[in-house]
Amino acid sequence: MQLKKRMEKDSNFQSHLLSEPTLVKTKNVNGWYVKFYAFSVDSEEKQRYRIRVKGSTETEKINDAKIIIKTIKDAFKNGAYISKVKRKDDTSTLPMADKITFKSSFEKYYNFVSQKLKPRSKETYKTWYNTVLSFFQEKGWDKFLISSIQKRHIRAFFDFLVERKGLSNKSYNDFIGFLSGFYNYMIDRGTVEVNLIKGFIKRLKVISGKHTPYTPQQAKSILNHFDSQNDQLSKVFLQFCYYTLARPREELRNLKVGDIGIDTIFFRPANAKSTETSYIVIPKPLEDILQEYKIRDYPSDHYIFSANENSTFLPGPKPTYHKFFYLRIRKALKVLGLTDKDYDLYSWKHTAVCQLFVAGVDIESIRQQCRHSDIKQTIQYLKDLGMIRNSEVKYKFPEI
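Structure (tokenized):
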């Protein structure tokens, strides 16, 4: 009888090895066997397994044992696992399903998707990837065949995110999207048939509340604070945040002198959310700042915001540290007592959008300045900020 058939007779050998297989010699030469310990998918525990060796002589039995030991090692190395449950999958329709481990397929997915990501997004995906893989490795599930991962494994991971990681609802939902994308990737390649995430793991409700807009008075008090600290650099940065509606850390911090045109500002695809070329109009108050500091006169490859010892505004060859302004605005908010809500650096963009809306600027113009691809996105954005324009209802509502 071939070794494969003998293995199938004892159990379906399909998991990772927990101890080196060894030959056990009993007093009765006919009772010799190879012993090893492996993880059982069914019980999720360490189990002992034995395979009887064959041969007419002691030499034949030793040689047979060597073959068995090598076969066991090779099988587990290639992602085999142990389960007494018979598979219901039609392996003829999934030729690769019984050859690929969760870890190897997950690595392929990450390598594929990360090639298209920008640096900041790539960091985020790397964090997601490491979190998932670390959990599966801790459980010993990373070496399971991808076809053997079940809903209970997925549920255990998402319970881990809540119970041990303590993630916010938004971060929890991010992992749903990430792993759902992984399964869609595997489905497209014929490796699995079902997306275990879709329809099984429910998204959690996310309450919008971050980046609360400042009132005009609050915004002025913050600018005045930086004036009192002789922090010209931070003040100009916040003014740019307000007038450009740019994302502070990714876009504005990496803005260069050469990106400032006569009437528009260019945002490079490498720093922007969209991969498309985008421009915004330079508002009159921002043009006054450009003229006051003669920003266009500096070398085109200089970063508009470059750190220096005395915090004066002076474009330079290097951009500021990515948390430079975040830490300064956080400190200022604490001094001013603005810590009761979700005020932060990004709030300046939301403040600007609200002020444009209140001033009566049409939504299409706001869309262009926000660089939204669709006006529906702008409408939803304004709605999330509580901006509703309906003067008919406001001024003509019948009194009861």
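The beta strands are 22-24, 33-39, 46-52, 264-267, 278-281. Residues 102-188 form one domain.
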